[in-house]
Write a structure and sequence with these properties.
It holds the Pfam family Rieske. One of its GO terms (molecular function) is metal ion binding. It is built from no helices and 9 strands. The chain is mainly beta. It is globular. The model has no long low-confidence stretch (mean pLDDT 95).
Length: 108
């Protein structure tokens, strides 16, 4: 499959996750404080909670429900209670379009 338009770059507020669904996969898109755009699986592996409702700090996204923080770069949980990683997707910026391939994950 190929990359799909997830949103406009101008829609992304810094450190504020945006939930998108591509090919039935919920994805949290984040523009971090360094203006880097990340895309990770939007479902916390601990409690089936949307990570896009969580909090961004640096290169981490914290689940609001139980406090597990996930690396935006690797998808790995950085603390308990989550111990399984979330998928990380490649992001391409084309003008004002944020493109993500929901079928291809980045190897951590």
């Amino acid at each position: 499959m190929t990359a799909q338009r997830a949103c406009a770059l101008s829609e992304l507020e810094q450190d504020t996750p945006l939930r998108v669904v591509l090919d039935g996969k919920p994805i949290a898109v984040v523009r971090d404080s360094n203006d880097v755009v990340h895309a990770i699986g939007d479902t916390c592996t601990h409690g089936d909670i949307s990570l896009a409702e969580g909090f961004v700090e640096g290169e981490t996204l914290e689940c609001w429900a139980h406090g597990s923080a996930f690396s935006l770069v690797t998808g790995k949980p950085l603390n308990l209670p989550a111990f399984e990683p979330v998928p990380v997707y490649t992001v391409t910026i084309d003008g004002d379009d944020v493109l993500i391939d929901p079928s291809a994950t980045v190897a951590a």
